[in-house]
């Protein structure tokens, strides 16, 4: 209840469903939008309509694009025999921002989880096994989150390719660039110590 | 740069301009919207278009409504000789949620500020003086924020009505309901002590 007219109340309710916004910040956002009607409210509504019409999940890798095959899967340059496995599209975007990886991706759409009853067939794992064969993949790079579910999923995936010629690797764990030891958790420090390298 | 297609990038840029959202939370919100296209993205775009068309600033009090006079200014029941002065529409909504005040409002649209060069004519102060006469107001209740600028504005407004029959009051300051003394700042405790009442 915000005692705003019905249209505005409805908009506040919908905005409050976005991750990171609650009822109070949704009210603040809506008031801001109304003040900046021409600059922000109308363009935002148009942009949402455009995305609602154009956004599509890539049938091959699960990335979000504007056609049935995303730009990365369409590009022959990215077919270098490497597939980077990520949990979510947000992780794919994070990898792309670093501009280091030149291969293709595979978005699982989550992690295996006994608690939430998520099994291999609920994720895009069978499709990954197919792709490794059809795209002649030589290396599967696991870029899963360093959580328990992420690591369980990584172990499961590594097992799938045991005995085949496919190399399975995972991102290195250690001290983040710019990280201060004093602010790091024990797990990270012990992982970094175990994986120490000669300089 | 998020390596998302152009439509999606554009939507992320616009979302990141909302108060309380930055680039990272905007990306998260947009991915959530795309996943919930039918349930959230389309309805949100429609709701924004509806508000962009219907929302209007009340010419009398500055509240946001759907016609030139807001519902509160249209209602004869609310013409009880009391006007509550607030800084912003968000404050008006907060007052209305408490369902205690039965009079009308006046939204200043900010506070006087020497630093930001905001003078009385930049706010809705002349209109307030007009309304006090035309609506036969007996009491002006100042519900301004307890900041320096808010209190400066309150003093200025009190001066405007000095010598007239209009009573100027302000919200009581003290310990909030449910507040624990240990977590309160010194200023609030000393204000509450000065304004102590016999029980």
From TrEMBL, chains A, B:
The record's section on InterPro entries has: DNA_Rcmb_RecR, Rcmb_RecR, Rcmb_RecR_Znf, TOPRIM_dom, TOPRIM_RecR
Q: Where are the zinc fingers (C4-type)?
A: 58-73
Gene3D superfamilies xref list = 3.40.1360.10, RecR Domain 1 (1.10.8.420)
> Which keywords fit this entry according to its UniProt record?
DNA damage, DNA recombination, DNA repair, Metal-binding, Zinc, Zinc-finger
Similarity-based family: Belongs to the RecR family.
Pinpoint the Toprim domain residues. Answer: 81-176
Question: Encoded by which gene?
Answer: recR
Xref: PANTHER family: RECOMBINATION PROTEIN RECR
Write down the Pfam families for this protein, in alphabetical order: RecR_C, RecR_HhH, RecR_ZnF, Toprim_4
Protein's organism: Pseudohalocynthiibacter aestuariivivens
Descriptive protein name = Recombination protein RecR
SMART domains annotated for this entry? TOPRIM (SM00493)
Q: What does this protein do?
A: May play a role in DNA repair. It seems to be involved in an RecBC-independent recombinational process of DNA repair. It may act with RecF and RecO.
């Amino acid at each position: 209840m915000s005692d705003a007219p019905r249209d505005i109340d409805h908009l506040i309710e919908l905005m409050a469903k976005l991750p990171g916004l609650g009822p109070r910040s949704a009210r603040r956002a809506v008031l801001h939008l109304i003040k900046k009607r021409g600059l922000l409210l109308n363009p935002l509504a148009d942009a949402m309509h455009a995305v609602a019409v154009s956004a599509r999940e890539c049938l091959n890798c699960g990335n979000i694009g504007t056609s049935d095959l995303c730009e990365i899967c369409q590009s022959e340059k990215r077919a270098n025999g490497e597939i980077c496995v990520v949990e979510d599209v947000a992780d794919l975007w994070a990898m792309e921002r670093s501009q280091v990886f030149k291969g293709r991706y595979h978005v699982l759409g989550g992690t295996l989880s006994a608690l939430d009853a998520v099994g291999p067939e609920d994720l895009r794992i069978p499709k990954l096994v197919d792709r490794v064969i059809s795209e002649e993949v030589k290396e599967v790079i696991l870029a899963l989150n360093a959580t328990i579910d992420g690591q369980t999923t990584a172990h499961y995936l590594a097992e799938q390719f045991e005995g085949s010629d496919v190399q399975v690797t995972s991102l290195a764990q250690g001290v983040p660039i710019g990280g201060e030891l004093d602010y790091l958790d024990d797990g990270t420090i012990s992982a970094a110590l175990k994986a120490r390298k000669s300089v």
